[in-house]
Each structure stands twice: as C-alpha cells, then as structure tokens.
Write a structure and sequence with these properties.
Blueprint lengths: L2 E5 L3 H11 L4 E5 L2 H10 L4 E5 L7 H10 L6 E5 L4 H10 L3 E4 L4 H20 L1 E4 L2 E4 L4 E4 L2 E4 L2 H12 L5 E2 H9 L7 H14 L6 E6 L3 E6 L3
Parallel strand pairs: 1-2, 1-3, 3-4, 4-5
Antiparallel strand pairs: 6-7, 7-8, 8-9, 10-12, 11-12
Main location: cytoplasm
Subcellular location: Cytoplasm
InterPro entries: CheY-like_superfamily, OmpR/PhoB-type_DNA-bd, Sig_transdc_resp-reg_receiver, WalR-like, WH-like_DNA-bd_sf
C-alpha cells in the first residue's frame, strides 16, 4: 500500500484529509514543510499532499528544496489561492498537480491514483494493466507468457497513450513527441501505426485505442 504524507498546518483540514485517505493508503502527517522534510529522511513516502501557506516553511519552499535535493516524490498542492501567478509559482517550484480548496475528495483520490501510476511508470519503465506488461527496456508487450514484439515507434506510441489513459492526444502532438519536431512524416503515419496496433491487439480486453473524430486518439483501460 502506498504511503502518503499530508502536510497541512490547519488541524481540522489535516485530520479530515487523512481520514478520507486512510481507507485506501497508509497516511502520515506533518504541520509544515520543515517537519515534512525531516520525515522524508526517516521513512519512505510515495506521494505528498501539501498546503502552500504554512508557518516555518511554506509549500513552495518545501517542494523547491526537495527538487534541489533530487527528491522526485510526486506533490499535489492544496490551496485557497487560485490566480494564474499562484499556479505558475507552484509548478515552477516543482509541484506535479494543483487543487483549489474546498477539496473535492473524490477528485483528489483520482489525482492521487494517476500520479502514483505515472511515478511507477517512470521508475520501472513499465506499464502493467491486468495480465499485460509493457516493458520499455525490451519494446515488448507480454500477456500470460505470450510476448508481442513491436517496432520502436509502435511501442512508443502505445506506451504514450497507455501512460495517460483517457487523455486525448492530437495527431500533431504524437508526431512531435514520438517522431520529433523535424520529422518528414505526416498524420497518415500516425493513422498507419494506430491501425497496426489495433490489429496486433484486436483480441485484447484490457485496453482499447479510441479515435476522437476531429481531435486525435486516446486509450481507455478496462480494469477487471
């Protein structure tokens, strides 16, 4: 079970947030950024949820110090501030996600799940969906002992889509990110590779690549 650190100086908000998370995660808490940094030296933390305006050390400074020290634990900022400059400052400090108070705790749980999943993908260079494992070190897709080898661009395309399930990517985005900005390929190339992937995984029930007409493509994951 993942361990989440809640950093919040308001006791009521801190206790409420911890209570909402405890059915799903191991939860620990801190009252300010300085206390949180000390805890990071003492125990393993998978994700941090932090307020911005706190005494002793605020959320911005906490995240900045983490990133400068090479600590890449995902951080979600919870704050009452909502101007563009506030968000820009938060992301510039190294924050991964940003939610405005009052918190919708159901949405917070979705965001936590997504960030933990992405952090796991980055660290292991693998995506695991049910019985399927995408291994970026070997450019293979394994299911129940059966290995499907993909061309590099096919694998990169599938890995990109499955890393962000439900997110729509335009054809130009996929061309730029996978083929490069200076590629001579066009959007027909994307369509060709999508069709190849669909053919190779036609019997797959764990995921589906969906065409969003006029926009691009997205992957949907079907958890059993």
């Amino acid at each position: 079970m993942a361990t989440i650190l809640v950093v919040e100086d308001d006791k009521h908000t801190r206790l409420l947030t911890c209570a909402r998370l405890k059915p799903y995660y191991t939860v620990t808490e801190a009252e300010n950024g300085e206390e949180a940094l000390k805890l990071l030296d003492q125990m393993h933390i998978d994700l941090i949820i932090a307020d911005i305006q706190m005494p002793v050390m605020n959320g911005y400074d906490m995240v900045k110090e983490m990133r400068e020290s090479g600590i890449q634990i995902p951080v979600i900022m919870l704050t009452a501030m909502h101007t563009f400059d506030d968000k820009r400052t938060g992301f510039a400090s190294g924050t991964d996600d940003y939610m405005i108070k009052p918190i919708d705790y159901e949405e917070l749980l979705w965001r936590i799940k997504a960030l933990l999943r992405r952090a796991n993908i980055v660290s292991q260079r693998k995506i695991i969906i049910g019985d399927i494992t995408l291994d970026s070190a070997a450019y293979t897709v394994r299911k129940e002992g059966t290995i499907t080898e993909l061309a590099k661009k096919e694998f990169d395309l599938l890995f990109k889509l499955l890393s962000y399930p439900g997110m729509i990517f335009t054809k130009s985005q996929l061309l730029d990110e996978i083929w490069g900005y200076d590629t001579n390929s066009d959007e027909t190339t994307i369509k060709t590779h999508i069709n190849r992937l669909r053919n190779k995984f036609a019997d797959c029930t764990e995921f589906e690549i969906i065409t969003i007409r006029g926009l691009g493509y997205k992957a949907e994951i079907y958890e059993k």
